[in-house]
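Can't attach files on this board, so I'm pasting raw text. These are the components:
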Amino acid sequence: MTISFTLNGEPISVEAPSDMPLLWVLREKLELTGTKFGCGIAACGACTVHINGVATRTCVMPVAAIEGADIKTIEGVSLGPGEMSAVQSAWLEHQVPQCGYCQSGMIMAAEALLDQNPDPSDDDIDNAITNICRCGTYERVRTAIHAAARARREA
Amino acid sequence: MSNETKPSSNAAKIARRTFLVSAGVVGGGVALGLALSPNRLKIYGDDVASGDEVILNTWVKLTPDNKLTVIIPHSEMGQGVGTGLAQMLAEEMEVDWDTVSIEQAPASNDYINSDLGRGYIVGEGAKIPSFVYPMLDFTFLQIAKGLVGQLTGGSTAIRLTGYHGMRRAGAAAREMLMRAAAKEWGVPMNSVRAEASTLYHDASNRSASFGSFAVAAAKFTPNLKPALKSPSSYKIVGTPKPRLDLPEKVTGEAQFGMDVIVPGMKYAAIAQAPVFGARAVAVDGPANPAQQIVNLGDAVVAVADSYWTASNAVRQLDITWDGGDQALTSEDLRASHNKHLQETRHEEVMDKEGDAPKALQSPDAVSVEYAVPYLAHATMEPMNCTASVHDGKCELWVGHQNPITARDDAAKALGLKKSDVTVHNAYLGGGFGRRARTDNVVQAARVAAEIGAPVKLVWSREQDMANDFYRPAIVSRMRGLVDDGKISAMSHAYIYSDAGMPDSERPFAFQYDVPNKRIARHPYPSPIPVGSWRSVDFTQMGFFNESFIDELAHKAGADALAFRLAHKSDARHRAVLERLADEANWGNPKTPGASQGVAIVDSFETIVGQVAEVTVEGDDRIRLHRLTSVVDCGQVINPNAAEAQIHSSVIFALSAVFFGEITLENGEVVQQNFPDYDMVRLRHAPTQDVHFINSGHAPGGLGEPGTPPVAPALTNAIFAATGTRIRELPLARAGFRSV
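---
Top answer:
Structure tokens for the assembled complex are below.
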């Protein structure tokens, strides 16, 4: 079937089986490989993108369900060429990623959290972000989210 | 890292030629390649090294515009290896750090790093500290068959490649540049100085960029023993340079093996034998012309135009498996281990002092048993590999810890020459030892050959969980005797399944001064595949030894940390414990109402001491508030990346302590995905305090040594809080769970 939606600000139509998860449509049909496959059952968060502003795990989200939706992926997070978002800048400032594989999903989850809660506490962060990072970047994820929150408030 | 994804059998050749041309201008640049033979260090030029020569895999590419590229012969799997190695080279070369970039070395024999240290041993003889010898064996360990490899493992990149290779390559390159300038300017070499990628002759007020002398410099023979800087004059090493690989890891641009796109490629999903050793004797399923089924014998693969379609297809197959031990269970294996531990016929004594058996006949001797389970690696990026086989050539795209063995094993499986196989090594989405194996690579190569098209093979998480090379499940029996507050004798007997760690690493050592010791292993090959899992045998031995010393301290009525100190004469160990007591407020937890536990393990030439602070909520819910680490890894190359490695090792170990257990029923792995093989997440992650001791020693490893003390520090803290001694992992076995 043909599905039409907005992807990183641009309208797009794609041909895909209706039950194909959005993850694979993004990665294979649209060749946006920043969104990662980790578990296939929405347990790890590596595949997180924003659907209408909500952080959503796409490995179990049939593409048919996003007809007309507004999708933002990691590729759409940068404010412009070479211009990183506050979260991305904080991620670099605090040297968060290690292997980096889970970080697209982690950043998308952090962006969504800050959109909803501009000044999250440690508990807010712990409860909102349940993504798995096998490299254990959690300590710096927390620090960087606080830093990004400050930067966004001061912007 | 290159984003080149088009299938080009020339890619490796081009890269190779770029770096092998001697002193020639290639694409506007100059490649300074250094090759090391047992007796001489020389420019590696058209006269390719002969049989007995050993190549220093440290490559310096300098362009006329004064940009330096360091070619990195290790895989990037989260540790920031490229940045660290480049810092070591740039420091000695006196390069302006802002001009430095890194590039992944091609998987070619020219970059084999196992030969590196060996070459320097021959070259330097007795000057090499003895610890390097066992480490060299360790570098060889996964590759013993061929003795060739480009392994990233054993926490060796910095302490071997960096310390013995990159530093000298940088210093030798600087000397060559200085020599070239001295000749051109007609001045003595010792009147030329190098600073920030510039050569100066102060007396005549002359200066020139490194780049302008690259061609001339490459004509000189590098010095085998260039003068190295004193650490006190370091400007780049020891500073928290931002990792060069991170910008593309926050934009989604970093390319992992999983992300490779080869034009025209198909996608493959796999069903591997659920029982280890079984074969697919019949494959039935709905016929679909859009899908191809390939029976690899121990696995069946469905190929389609998308991974989703292929994974649905493989699920719909009706596969008849035959063979393997279909009755195997974890309980039976545990019983066999216990039985095997009672028999001494096959035991191998690993360490012996005094007469422990005699001393331990005392009725006051303590005897306890410990057990740890199989553990999966569960890298975030499930196993995958992309392969293209055409015209007798094979190209592979994969993130691999040992691209040379990946190449060799693919060549063997396809009946090709090694030189006909090209590996493009991508970023690794976690390695931890798993990605030193080539099962996924061989599968992809065989499927690509079979279907005659490029193919990306992707394992589901469930396939990844059930087809690992697991950390061995073993049991251990410890005995000890305390006399007048001191341990007078101890013995340790344990089941040994070879996970690839050489004895010279001494993971079994009881790292305390005890007059009577006997440590014996009982070899019992694992019925399922086992392999290196971050810190290898030290994870099990660290838990056994550091739990047992805690038990003996309790028996002696002594403070757990003071008791350890009373049995340590090694000055570095003592310094770590003393600093730890200070930093962690030992005896006075920083978290109100918390209990503390301590552990210390020396592994991979690095000593890590840790204190855990826990509270128990309700009867059984463990909250780990804080974990303090004190680390003596000798010279710290990059403090920021070093701290990250400790953060990482701690979380990796905590996932195992809280949740990690692979069990077997009917010969099959029970756990399938993260719900039943769960992971520590943000809400479980403690506050971490990490402190480094600058002991002035050469750098030790850092990828693994933070892992072994975590489990015992935590379980010792739980004992302090509850009086319950945890002798089996994970915590659920003792009735505890995480908050």
